[in-house]
Amino acid sequence: MNGPISWFSSTRRLIRILWTVRRFGLDELVVSGAASSSRSPWLLRMTRWLRMGTIREPRGVRLRMAFESLGPIFVKFGQVLSTRRDLLPPDIANELALLQDRVPPFPADQAVAEIERGLVMRLEQAFAEFGREPIASASIAQVHRARLHDGTQVAVKVLRPGMLDVIEDDLSLLRTGATLAMRLSADARRLRPMEVVDEFDHYLHDELDLVREAANANQLKRNFEGSTLLRIPQMYWDYCRRNVLVMEWVNGIPIGQTERMRAVGIDLEKLSRDGVEIFFTQVFRDGFFHADPHPGNIFIRDDGRISLIDFGLVGHLSAPRRHEILSLIKALAERDPFTMQYVLGNWAQGELPDENLLGADVLEMLLNYENTPVSDLRISQVINDITQIMRGHGLTLPADLVMLFKTLITLEGVVKRLDGSTE
Questions:
Q1: What is d(CA 86, CA 4) in angstroms, rounded to the nearest whole number?
Q2: DSSP state letter for 17
């Protein structure tokens, strides 16, 4: 998208963002960071002035409300940002984790046009039946139910039209904002905003390629071929393009519907153990895992096996990284501060922590767990403690571990709903 129309659209969007920043007092957050860094009396007076006439809520709430008001791309950015607990204070990370990717569906005529554009054929050539009412809708894509000409029931995922231009414009504005924040505030520089925006850029463009998503599903399907615990739906490659994905329809009970599962005799305690086994098999055997296991993406089939959907977000772990994680788990079980400090030091991405101070914080963390059996430790608490230690020393986690930790916290929430005793 180029020319005067693009310039006008970007300028209008920038004005709206600046107005939102002022409305929710986010400019005060930046200036207060600069004031505390420089100890400038002028900036301190400006901070007090900026607080006037803005919404009076805690900073995390204001930031969440601002992202919600700016639309789905900024909501997704806030969701990604919430996973960086090694960078963000807990009050902001916890509030951003509440963001929900909820947007109304786009019209069926647009969906049909996008499918026909991707497949280069008329809709009736591909499908004997096509449900015009979407069964799910999000900021990037929506899903329709359909039937192939051989009678196979399928789910058709189609990208929201025009999303690439919207994303590129918003990413450009995010980079501008990140550059400005880094110039104004030492606190902002420590948060590495450009690194976070680059990570978000990579994440979004992966989601915009549905062929990549189908390939992710096929990889998981190969990894669990013959499994008695997990079944990955079939991808129909003749109908998969960058903007369209067609996969086997998954019949099953959503894992969040616990009463319905009890009513048909599903053992929820066994199910929670199976889910944990599946995930750790992905992590430690394969180094390739589904990274978005929220309840809407997990179904229980009639044969008792688990099925997953939505493969746009996956994590990769190298063999050395898996070894480090196992070493950390062993150190946690044995209350071994030296091994834990060594692993965390390796995760510092080339930065050199003060070994004595880092060691003291690791020891304090382990002492806090002294009277708690490993089986009773909450994964989310351990992850939070590790990320806060890293943040306290100005260290950042590698992207693969950020993805893993986010996924573990999501999975813990799912498991606790099934069986509170499984940790």
A1: 41
A2: H
Q: What is the pLDDT of residues 382-393, one digit of tens each?
A: 999 999 998 888
292 has catalytic annotation: yes
3-state secondary structure of 121: coil
In degrees rounded to 5, what are phi and psi of residue 198? Answer: -65, -40
pLDDT tens, 78-127? 888 888 888 788 888 889 888 877 778 999 999 999 999 999 999 999 99
Give me the mean pLDDT over the 326-342 stretch.
94
Instruction: State residue 385's pLDDT score.
Output: 94
Task: Show Cβ contacts of residue 8 under 8 Å, excluding neighbours closer than 6 positions.
Answer: none
Active-site residue, from 27, 274, 292, 419: 292
CA-to-CA dists, residue 392 to 127, 181, 377, angstroms: 56, 21, 22
Contacts of 355 (CB under 8 A, 6+ apart): 341, 345
Q: What is d(CA 218, CA 223) in angstroms, rounded to the nearest whole number?
A: 9
Q: At what angle do helices 72-82 and 193-207 cross, to 10 degrees?
A: 120
CB of 6 within 8 A of CB of 166? no
Other Cβ atoms less than 10 A from the Cβ of 265: the count is: 7
